[in-house]
Design a protein that fits this description.
The chain has about 550 residues and is of the alpha/beta class. The protein contains 17 helices and 23 strands. It has a domain at about 75-200: Roll (Diaminopimelate Epimerase, Chain A, domain 1). The strands form four sheets. The chain has a seven-stranded parallel beta sheet. The protein has a six-stranded mixed beta sheet with strand order 3-2-7-21-22-23, with helices on one face. Strands 9-10-11-12-14-13 form a six-stranded mixed beta sheet, with helices on both faces. It starts with a strand and ends with a strand.
């Protein structure tokens, strides 16, 4: 039988248990049927076989990004304006962008902006500055972490939020400590009010259309599989439409959102368990987000934040949690008993302890040996927390994307000494704790190689020192985005390594990330991306 697809002349890191390498592989029906030296695989080439010459370059399994937000990113690419540090570097630049966008918007539209990093763009604008730039339009700017935002007075008015309003549960409208007036900065559930106003008109077709661009961007960076964190019902419906219409060029895992209040009970009631779906679209599990943002100074820690407080921030500030423990324990236990893989976000040590308290209670109520419950982001892993992860068999679903893009803010807000336990992958590996890495895009960029590089160098994009004591090898960093990413989704039989019987998902790189100078990893480009034996991107 001739193969549908053959790759030749590669330096294939199979990422199998033996760490073997190969030159070539062949695929039929989307799965690998042979792997080995060129001479052995050439025999699978027939008249209709698609052949890709890797030209001696490094080949890796397709990247598995096990926690991202492609649904939100899809919409924001279409209708929001990006103000990340590569676009906006000063406060005047930010205000000029707001002014230019607002002048061009049709009547009734909000000015919506995302990925603001105030540390790299001159600080937060004042409410007066926002009002002057927006020309009377409602404006909302989402901070890069997705947990805080800035709103102008027209936005407060559009959401019927007056000066005497009380803070919502698990959120805050920041106020000037001297005058009591709004500063414009809104936190957590207070920010959700504005997000819901902006996203209220989003349709399933908006998500599906934006996903065409998201897929292209992922494939350009060698990503063949993404898990959509906190997926709402609207996105699930859009993805099913795309699946029926044959519009998937990459693979999507659904992590159903606990924020979409009826969604998880409906899954439980319908008897739908983790694993429901197919190779292109599959339910991975369910997720709640009780912890917040270290770079935005809201994540829950036992010790207070360092540095200068933002006006309106509580002093001392140890962050906040977004659920009552008994409530979340009841929700998580019900999902776990129903066969749904449970994932709970924890960023600071207090937040991670909270997540572990909930998951331990769920397991006590319904013991399961191979549960693979995940602490999402799981940044500040102190030795006691590491011991809890090990003892309970929990997964450290590590937000390695934060290392590169937000590392400087972590050092500023928590101190350099804390970096010894921040994303401690060397210690996690030594303890045998599975720790897949993820980007959390659109919080961070899609490109996985910047985070992989930061895992090896322990330096952020600005050069901040993240403590080299927890540096890992390139192969270990790659495993976090391949084999461990697949395992954390119970998909290790299908993806994460290049072996006979597994999906023919792979990427050809312009840099050998396993042997190059570690500082060069973050600049890696992708020559080709293959999904199921089909070439979906070529530079």
């Amino acid at each position: 039988m001739n193969a549908d697809f053959v790759l030749l002349n590669g330096r294939i890191a199979t990422m199998d248990a033996a760490g073997s390498e190969a030159q070539a592989l062949a695929a039929h029906g989307g799965r690998i049927v042979a792997i080995g030296p060129d001479d052995a695989v050439r025999g699978h080439i027939g008249p209709g076989t698609r052949v890709l010459d890797a030209e001696g370059r490094r080949v890796i399994p397709g990247i598995v990004d096990s926690h991202a937000h492609p649904d939100a990113y899809a919409v924001r690419l279409r209708t929001w304006t990006l103000v990340s540090p590569d676009r906006v570097t000063t406060r005047d630049g930010l205000l000029g962008t707001i002014r230019r966008v607002c002048e061009s918007l049709p009547p009734g539209r909000w000015g919506a902006f995302y990925r603001l990093n105030e540390r790299a763009s001159g600080g937060y604008p004042t409410l007066d500055e926002l009002d002057a730039a927006s020309g009377g339009r409602p404006v909302f700017i989402l901070r890069t972490d997705g947990h805080l935002g800035l709103a102008n007075r027209a936005a407060f008015a559009a959401c019927a939020i007056g000066p005497a309003v009380q803070d919502p549960p698990f959120g805050a409208f920041d106020r000037d400590p001297r005058t009591g007036a709004f500063t414009g900065l809104v936190r957590e559930t207070a920010a959700h009010i504005f997000l819901n106003a902006v996203h209220g008109s989003d349709s399933e077709s908006d998500i599906a259309e934006g996903m065409e661009t998201v897929q292209d961007e992922c494939l350009r960076h060698g990503i063949t599989s993404v898990a959509n964190s906190l997926t709402p019902a609207k996105a699930i419906r859009a993805y099913q439409t795309m699946r029926r219409e044959g519009r998937w060029r990459m693979r999507m895992g659904i992590i159903a959102s606990g924020r979409d209040e009826p969604l998880i009970p409906h899954l439980i009631g319908a008897g739908i368990r983790s694993g429901f779906g197919d190779d292109w679209l599959r339910l991975i599990g369910v997720e709640w987000c009780p912890d917040c943002s270290t770079s935005g100074r809201t994540a829950a820690y036992w010790e207070p934040y360092l540095g200068t407080p933002v006006p309106g921030e509580p002093v001392p500030n140890t962050g906040m949690l977004l659920y009552e423990k008994d409530d979340l324990t009841e929700r998580a236990t019900a999902a776990h008993k129903a066969g749904l893989q449970v994932m709970i976000e924890g960023v600071g040590d207090r937040g991670i302890d909270f997540a572990l308290d909930v998951m331990e209670a769920a397991l006590a109520a319904h013991p399961v040996a191979d549960h693979r419950m995940r602490v999402e982001h799981c940044c500040y892993v102190t030795p006691p927390i590491l011991a809890r992860l090990k003892r309970g068999g929990f997964v450290d679903s590590s937000a390695t994307g934060f290392m590169d893009e937000l590392g400087e803010a972590y050092v500023a807000n928590r101190g350099h000494s804390a970096m010894r336990h921040m994303w401690p992958h060397r210690s996690l590996i030594a303890a045998g704790i599975p720790a897949p890495g993820h980007s959390d895009f659109a919080v961070c960029r899609v490109n996985p190689f910047t985070a992989i590089g930061a895992m090896v160098t322990r330096r952020s994009q600005t050069g901040a020192d993240l403590d080299a004591a927890e540096a890992v090898t390139p192969a270990q960093a790659l495993a976090a985005y391949t084999t461990l990413g697949a395992w954390a989704q119970r998909e290790e039989a299908d993806k994460g390594s290049l072996e006979v019987g597994k999906l023919a998902d792979l990427a050809v790189l312009d840099t050998d990330i396993l042997t190059c100078d570690p500082s060069a990893i973050r600049g890696t480009g992708v020559i080709a991306t293959v999904v199921g034996g089909m070439e979906r991107f070529h530079a």
